[in-house]
Amino acid sequence: MKFKITETVLRDANQSLMATRMSIKDFEGILEEMNKAGYYSVECWGGATFDSCLRYLGEDPWERLRIIRKKMPDCKLQMLLRGQNILGYHHYSDDTVRRFVRCAIKNGIDIIRIFDALNDMRNIKTAVDECLKCKGHAQGTICYTLSPIDNIEKYVKTGKEIEAMGCNSLCIKDMAGIMSPKECYDLVKALTDNIKIPVFVHTHSTTGLGYMTYLKAAEAGAAGIDCATSCFSGGTSQPTTESMVYTLTQMGYDCGVKYDELKKINDFFVPVAKKYMENGTFDPYVLSVKVDALNYQIPGGMLSNLVSQLKAQNAIDRLDEVLAETPKVRKDLGYPPLVTPMSQMVGVQATVNVLMGERYKSIGKEVKAYIRGEYGRAPGKINEELKKKVLGDEKVIEGRYAETIEPEYEKAKKYLGSKAKSEEDVLSYIAFPQNAEKFFDEREMKSALVATYSIREA
Ligand code: CO
Question: What is the pTM of this model?
């Protein structure tokens, strides 16, 4: 039986363990080897990588993608896209979403995993449609979450919507690692019984359930799973590629992966992990199992963000209080799944509620926008009192918010003028205006320096 393995070291493992600070220089040297390993796909782009390239690494994210594509011509390249949020934290216009998807595929992406933080499928439609038009593989996503309003019937209904949209496959995205082996088995079974497209499972090792959950996913008929090479696996990252392949192969699954290649790849990443552990970027704290997440449902990236936020405010001793406040804020907001950008919103609001000593004394701008309906339909009921406090007499937006957003591309292009060298540059700017512009200015300076230097040399 064929079973597909996606390697996440370049994206999710990097994001969940060390806040996406791995630079292309850290992994460029192993890409040719990864190309040969036999993975179904390598998740290498999207998520927070784009923001991190521009904000922290001084890298052009599009150039990163082109380099990966060039060195990995035979392996499918996969990215994570936040639907109408593309790779940012709020909704963008449809023209931006379409151009972004088109450029991602043009520059080398094969598979786009598309999700909406509220499981509001209206918010992934545009991206899915454009991906299919560009002959990409569109993977519709269900964000897995536990709450009094989420159950198998609801997930199956969403699965049917995803299939009807024309998606090539479906992913159950368990960003917090809270899906138990039994829940996974039942859900995969229910989905495969009701829809025809392949079902992939994505989880994290955060709570220690991940390995067992993956095994049950395989038994229930899932098409594949996401894993991370051993030195970047475990904890808030994915279960280990080598161990999963070893286990599944013994059980008769053909993962298509060359085991010897996996060792070479991991040997390459060991010193990379060591380097970031030594400089403090990769805090081993995130590697230990935290069963608290089963109660708090804090996804990998969110937990490490909360820790660093509280450390920065000299308030790490309040972590337990913030962790207890988080599910309460989530309930007040109608049980949104804790995934970007909802995880940040809920996390920041819980922190503010605790540190200010009074709940909702101050309410974040994004939380207000969410309550107004600018992120889509809230999954459940929003706390009436909170709603009133934010909205006053204003009404919640019922339609698809993106339809109220003016086209963004031409305006941005005009503003940037000669600073933008390509359509991709304009899209970087629309996604992250300040950081992209800073990046363009620095790029300009660098090339001016190189020019001066070469004139002198000549
Ligand atoms: Co993930």
Answer: 0.93
* In contact, 301 and 343? CB cutoff 8 Å: yes
Centroid of ligand 1 to alpha carbon of 359 (angstroms) = 30
Query: Ligand 1 centroid vs 175 CA: distance in angstroms?
Result: 5
Q: Which stretches within 56-199 are classed as H helix?
A: 61-71, 94-106, 125-133, 152-164, 181-194
β-sheet bridge partners, residue 202: 173
**How far, CA to CA in Å, does 172 sit from each of 155, 188, 247, 265, 376?**
9, 8, 22, 27, 20
Q: Quickly count: other Cβ atoms within 10 Å of residue 129's Cβ.
A: 17
CA 61 to chain centre: 15
Q: In the chain, what are the helix, strand and coil shares in percent, each to the nearest 5?
A: 55, 10, 35
Q: Which of 257-261, 356-360, 450-454 has the lowest mean pLDDT?
A: 450-454
Q: Is 458 helix (H, G, I), strand (E, B) or coil?
A: coil
Ligand 1 centroid to residue 174 C-alpha, Å: 7
* Distance of alpha carbon 96 from alpha carbon 94, whole angstroms: 5
Q: Which fold has domain 285-402?
A: Cyclin A; domain 1 (1.10.472)
Contact 34, 42 (CB under 8 A): yes
Backbone angles phi, psi at 196, to 5 degrees: -95, -25
- Residue pair 175/300 in contact by the 8 Å Cβ criterion: yes
What pLDDT, in 10s, does the model give residues 334-391?
Answer: 999 988 889 999 999 999 999 999 999 999 999 999 999 999 999 999 999 999 999 9
What is the rounded CA–CA span in Å between residue 230 and residue 73? Answer: 24
Indicate where the chain has its CATH 3.20.20.70 domain(s): 4-278
Which pLDDT score is estimated for 455? Answer: 65
Q: What is the pLDDT of residues 105-143, one digit of tens each?
A: 999 999 999 999 999 999 999 999 999 999 999 999 999
CB-based contact 149:175 (threshold 8 Å): no
Q: Specify the domain boundaries for CATH 1.10.472.90 within the chain.
A: 285-402
Distance 234 CA to ligand 1 centre (A): 12
Q: Is 350 helix (H, G, I), strand (E, B) or coil?
A: helix
Characterize 131-148 residue by residue with b for buried, 16 or more Cβ atoms within 10 angstroms of its Cβ, and e for exposed.
bbebebbbbbbbbbbbbe
Residue 240: phi, psi to the nearest 5?
-75, 130
Residue 173 C-alpha to ligand 1 middle, in angstroms?
7
CATH architecture of 4-278: Alpha-Beta Barrel (3.20)
Q: Cα of 422 to ligand 1 centre, how many Å?
A: 31
Q: How far is residue 376 from each of residues 95, 122, 225, 358, 400, measured CA to CA in Å?
A: 18, 8, 29, 28, 7
